[in-house]
Design goal:
52% helix, elongated, transmembrane, alpha/beta, 2 domains, six-stranded mixed beta sheet, membrane, 18 helices
Length: 480
């Protein structure tokens, strides 16, 4: 049986979606029923709104239709937003639950002739869409993700304000100071008496708090996360980034996402060389020049229910710079002489998570893994999450298939465990690295390969000449 942590890692989005759904349905009805009763007994807010009729000739029906239209416009934008589509759908359900609660005490829908006030409803709908969407509504193509953040924020503050004002009106009895009846607005000298109705205050405050916190989770856009890949020269960093790009591109196509990946030019050059090769070609990748630095990066959206912007990047370079990185991380940028090391240190500081590469080919050939600098980097780079990735794991995939008689792709979880056991049990540096990263799991990735006549491992390709990868899609889920 999977542990709770594993279950949440694999099904966390669906689980929390279910929790939020239950909260929205369970809380919205009784909460807005209470707010409806607060409206009926209102001492302040209702008289102020009723005063709009004699002062500005705006009736209560017209005002209610306009505000409801604004709400619908904001909610419509949230539903259009790919990153908030599911949350928007749940808010529609919560809205329906709230309207049913108000309907049960004869409020809102029974009191508004929407046919007669369709112009006010439409004006509010357009106004909410314009205010919440702004110039993004007019943009056909953009290099940034389609997000209506402002509409979500306004929607949150609008609903929160209604809840707070309603609860105050429900539990606090204010003296009347304005009388809009009789076609005029009369100011009344208020009596200096305020009383509090304590009955049900705790329950209502708890429902309101749960609803507002859940609503905040709905409208908040998860901040972007930055992943930076570190590894010794020749450890497969470039091919790892290319493989991750392929996986992210496939995922974007599957979900019909219109969020651009924004790959760097250097990354697309690698993709082009690898992708344009013939079916019988090798890697078709040249080694990085002694003075060249290739900036490999792209962005993608991870998660389907609660999407998050992810940036994945690395620097490909010739030469040993990892050993100099710990010292650079502890030094001011002005004191770092080497421009490559300075750029490396900047990227490491900016990253939320470091992806540390373990070269399985080096392990298989009994060569030094070159991961010793990782320990000093982790000591100097504070507050960083860590992911361990085993590149070129096709070598261990062949061993796994020979020993277990299982397809490593089809039985990937078993293969991942096999890779972890093999590397940890047979290499003390890897064992220590896993221990120092709180028992981090090593994630194997590889291109399916075959051995050519020269004894070199070259990528297997499908009939269209495309390389075939394993483990990258599974790792894609880990990056959220």
């Amino acid at each position: 049986m999977n542990s709770p942590a594993t279950f949440l890692e694999e099904h966390g989005e669906k689980f929390f979606l279910g929790v939020y759904f239950v909260i929205m349905v369970a809380v919205a009805g009784p909460l807005f029923l209470t707010l409806g009763e607060a409206w009926i007994a209102s001492d302040v807010f209702r008289p102020l709104i009723l005063s709009l009729d004699p002062l500005l000739s705006i009736s209560l029906e017209q005002f209610s239709a306009a505000v409801f239209g604004i709400y619908l416009g904001l909610l419509l934008l949230m539903t259009i937003d790919p990153k908030k589509r599911v949350q928007g759908a749940l808010l529609w359900i919560g809205t329906g639950s709230a309207l049913i609660g108000l309907l049960s005490i004869g409020l809102f829908i029974p009191n508004i002739d929407f046919t007669a006030n369709v112009a006010w409803l439409g004006a509010g709908l357009v106004g909410g869409a314009v205010v919440g969407g702004g110039k993004q509504l007019m943009e056909v193509r953009t290099t940034s993700a389609l997000e209506f953040r402002r509409s979500a924020s306004i929607l949150f503050y609008l609903i929160s304000a209604i809840i707070v004002v309603g609860l105050v009106e429900f539990h606090v009895n204010f003296p009347q100071f304005i009388d809009p009846s009789g076609g005029t607005v009369e100011i009344i000298a208020p009596e200096p008496t305020v009383s509090v109705a304590w009955s049900g205050l705790t329950t209502n405050a708890l429902m309101a708090g749960v609803f507002v916190v859940t609503l905040r989770r709905f409208v908040t856009y998860d901040s972007s996360e930055n992943f930076f890949v570190l590894g010794p020269p020749g450890s497969g960093k470039s091919l790892f980034l290319v493989g991750k790009y392929f996986a992210a591109l496939d995922d974007a196509v599957d979900r019909k996402s219109d969020t651009p990946l924004n790959p760097s030019g250097d990354l697309m050059e690698l993709v082009g060389r690898l992708d344009a090769a013939t079916k019988s070609a090798g890697w078709e990748l040249d080694s990085t020049g002694a003075t060249d630095i290739e900036d490999l990066q792209f962005r993608f959206v991870n998660g389907r229910v609660f999407p998050k912007n992810i940036e994945l990047s690395s620097l490909d370079y010739a030469g040993e710079y990892l050993e100099e990185l710990p010292g650079a991380l502890m030094s001011p940028e002005s004191e770092i002489d080497n421009s490559t090391v300075q750029l490396l240190s900047e990227r490491v500081r900016a990253a939320n998570t470091l992806i540390l590469v373990i070269d399985v080919e080096r392990y298989h050939n009994n060569e030094p893994l070159g991961i010793e600098p990782y320990f000093d980097i982790l000591d100097t780079a504070d507050n960083k999450d860590v992911l361990l990735v085993a590149t070129k794991s096709d070598i261990l995939a062949q061993q796994f298939e020979d020993e277990q008689a299982l397809d490593p792709h089809q039985y990937f979880d078993d293969f991942r465990q096999y890779v972890n056991d093999t590397l940890v049990e047979n290499n003390q540096a890897v064992r220590t690295l896993v221990q120092d990263t709180s028992g981090s799991e090593i994630h194997p990735v590889y291109y399916e390969t075959t051995v050519n006549d020269a004894g070199e491992r070259v990528p297997m390709r499908d009939r269209n000449g495309n390389v075939m990868t394993v483990g990258f899609e599974e790792l894609l889920e880990k990056l959220g």
